[in-house]
Amino acid sequence: EAGVAQSPRYKIIEKRQSVAFWCNPISGHATLYWYQQILGQGPKLLIQFQNNGVVDDSQLPKDRFSAERLKGVDSTLKIQPAKLEDSAVYLCASSLTGASYNEQFFGPGTRLTVL
Amino acid sequence: AQSVTQPDIHITVSEGASLELRCNYSYGATPYLFWYVQSPGQGLQLLLKYFSGDTLVQGIKGFEAEFKRSQSSFNLRKPSVHWSDAAEYFCAVGAGNNNDMRFGAGTRLTVKP
User: Fold this and answer.
1) What is the band of A110 on the pLDDT scale with cuts at 50, 70, 90?
2) In this predicted model, what pLDDT tens digit does every residue of B22-54 receive, in sequence order?
3) Which terminal Cβ of chain A has fewer Cβ within 10 Å, N or C?
4) What CA–CA distance (Å, rounded) separates B80 from B68?
């Protein structure tokens, strides 16, 4: 079974530039999550999708971050414009449903460096 | 909202020694508890989880964890550590119906030969 795929694996940009990350979840998984993991911290949930609808985006900085999952499968996360403090690993995860007992499967992440 | 504290930022153990990683949670009801491991450059892999029932849960790679409600703890243990166990370990607590999971800051494990 293929796991969660993410691209790119690494990205270096200047502040005020834009960047986009892509995630393809495990086939059949209805729920998709984007996490931000700053160095030395645990992952923090940015947004959760159930199929193509947003379940929770309370911790997403909406003035600069956006995410979509138009067809309920793969998803993109965009930052525009980027700030230095956005340097982090962005993890995508998926689960069969959004219930708390369902395991979340994580992708390898995209490491973003903002200079 | 739920929260997790991992008191130890970094732990070093010798190969073959036993290991215990601490995790304390805060949540008003019975939580869903998880331990994940993250190797360098990798995503998180689930080691084990607790939802209900037996408070001692077995996981992959020889790990186990014990849920102690009275202490709000869910400590991870392994009787004999292998060099390949060197990684970052995260405790997480889930609650509610939308899988709102909160992670601790992690404990980095170094294994000495």
Assistant:
1) very high
2) 999 998 777 889 999 999 878 899 999 998 888
3) N
4) 22
Q: What is the DSSP string of B64-84?
A: EEEEEGGGTEEEEEESS--GG
Q: For residue B11, what are its two tokens?
A: 């732990």
Distance from CA of B15 to the nearest CA of A (A): 24
d(CA A23, CA A31): 12
Of B46, B100, B102, the CB nearest to A103: B46
Q: How far apart are CA A3 and CA B80, in angstroms?
A: 29
pLDDT tens across A24-34, in order? 999 999 999 99
Q: What average pLDDT does chain A have?
A: 93
CB-based contact B86:B35 (threshold 8 Å)? no
Q: Which residues of B touch A44 (CB under 8 A)?
A: 103
